[in-house]
């Protein structure tokens, strides 16, 4: 089993680091989407005849990948949250266990979002950007905050004081 990195700062600093991570990953998807939109509006989609013929298949693949990744992300995330709640550890340990759960959730949402932007870039079909938008919204919905962590991890009053 791999050794996990442990945060050394206070719980507030750890929470801030998790927020920055979430914002950074979300911003990457957003900026990539904007760049693809700008290039497509200036130059149009890649004029490859084979890509135009494969557009329905690509849309199906994007939707399937997004659905599978989202289901997997939610299952893993909820399983990890249940494990953290049942662990009865300190707040620091809970945050150290929460971080990989959040990162995995964000990664499983980011992959299909970036894939959908690439397919949009190739096909020029704006509907495909909807998948990126949905995945981006799901990423931002997991933005960690003190109140959210208190609710999700069922923190006791001492842990709440440390975090708030």
Give your account of this protein's structure.
The chain has about 160 residues and is mainly α. The chain has one domain. About 80% of the residues lie in helices and about 0% in strands. The chain contains 6 helices and no strands. It has helices at about 10-45, 50-85, 90-125, 125-140, 145-155, 155-164. The radius of gyration is 19 Å and the shape is elongated.
The figure for the number of domains is 1
* pLDDT < 50 runs, ≥5 residues: none
Question: Overall mean pLDDT score?
Answer: 89
Structural class: mainly alpha
Radius of gyration: 19 Å
Termini separation comes to: 33 Å
Sheet having the most strands? none
**What share of the residues does DSSP label as strand, in percent?**
under 5%
* Helical segment count: 6
**What assembly state would you assign to the polypeptide chains in this entry?**
single chain
Large-scale geometry: elongated
Spell out the key features of this protein.
164 residues; elongated
Sequence-ordered SSE layout with sheet pairings:
Elements: H1 11-43, H2 49-87, H3 91-123, H4 127-141, H5 146-153, H6 157-163
Helix pairs in contact: 1-3, 1-4, 2-3, 3-4
